[in-house]
Amino acid sequence: METLKPTPSPTLKRLPKYLEILHNLRETGVEEVSSMTIAKSLGLDSVQVRKDIELTGILGKPKIGYNVVSLIHSIRTFLNWDNMSDAMLVGAGNLGSAFIGYSNFKKYGLNIVAAFDIDEAKIGKEYYGIQVLNVNKLSDLTSRMKVHIGILTVPGDKAQEVAEMMIEGGIRAIWNFAPVQLKVPENIYVENTHLSSYISQIKRRLKENIYNEELLLK
Amino acid sequence: METLKPTPSPTLKRLPKYLEILHNLRETGVEEVSSMTIAKSLGLDSVQVRKDIELTGILGKPKIGYNVVSLIHSIRTFLNWDNMSDAMLVGAGNLGSAFIGYSNFKKYGLNIVAAFDIDEAKIGKEYYGIQVLNVNKLSDLTSRMKVHIGILTVPGDKAQEVAEMMIEGGIRAIWNFAPVQLKVPENIYVENTHLSSYISQIKRRLKENIYNEELLLK
DNA sequence: TAGATTGTTAATCGATTAACAATC
DNA sequence: TAGATTGTTAATCGATTAACAATC
What we know:
Two copies of one chain form a homodimer. Chain A is an alpha/beta fold. The first copy, chain A, has helices at 9-27, 35-42, 46-55, 68-78, 94-100, 104-107, 138-145, 156-168, 195-217, and strands at residues 32-33, 66-67, 85-90, 110-117, 126-127, 130-134, 149-152, 173-176, 189-192. In chain A, 47% of the residues lie in helices and 17% in strands. Chain A contains nine helices and nine strands. Chain A is globular and about 60 Å long. In chain A, β5 and β6 form a beta hairpin. Chains A and B meet through α1, α5, α6 and α9 of A and α1, α5, α6 and α9 of B. Chain A binds a DNA duplex through residues 8, 10-11, 34-36, 45-48, 50-51, 54, 59-66.
């Protein structure tokens, strides 16, 4: 069996955007699409689009382009969106409880099967049909249900502790929203979504832009 | 006046992580810190840390390192976290309404001053002391209050329309959570947080990893 | 002074973009 | 056939990492 070469992160981030466009095209009955069409809608280079698509293992036809339906299928398979992946969510605060009801997750093949919290006040509450359980059941339930993805929406000071419980239960990928650097074994994949990083970018870009605009007014 | 050279995105994403560590150090009474200490806690290269810090305009002392309090101040000023930035939020669904109450935003200098929705059923509701207004008031209120940041948490099919209302009202940076490529004038900064991109990464990495592990078992 | 750490210049690496031959 | 578009090899670009002189 061949080792799967890691796909560049930028590619993995772009592929869902292609899907978005392809779904629209399919709905309007378009059957073939060129890399240039996709590139233009996203403001990208067409070579980049072709290289990304190539990685998913589909071949286009010179002069014609790619078959829309086949391309959708190829990308979805590559991203494993066709198979639902179960996930445990820990931290039923306002962010966490919002995620429980966020219907788009299912669209992307992510299914939250259970939610947990440390806070007695939250345990027993139900959001969108999912009951919040005591976090002391996390590890056991994770291994019994063979869940491999954990969504971490607890406050920073509990994040490391909870991550370790997740790993003990057999979690292999953690989607971390806590503003903390998790220390995990190297076979565990951590995807950090630090909202502070985005806010940094927005606020700094605005600052940079302000001066540039004043400069233009001279 | 000098034009502000755009800071590399990777740097802007790392700086908040340094702050997190520096705050912890300050709490435990540490006064000086070396680039290596910061680098180690985050699994980074110390040169990278020094270069990032240099961009914020502070100087360290050979043999000693950086003064923790000064460094915190320098990074916060650079990221403009000391000044509160007002933001309008449009789309009071489960994600949007969660953000209204998400206390960390204030910590990062982002203050949601008003929330809007198209849906009559949501208009008038109140979340964490903020009332949801009719989106037809968005543009007018934005320009009267001189708000420059918009948070977009509407469904994909309304996103472009709402983005245009934001821009009409004077919004200059849009934090977009809708799974859509926004078409905006080039002086408008769009920060995309497409949750689908993260899920792609997680699901694909897990797939890549599965095969690698099976390989190891041989 | 000697050693540790900074700041800076040079080398490397990975991803993007350009050039172009292959082909429907 | 001619033209458009793919797939691939080479060049460029930006960010990371390595090397090292300056200095407290």
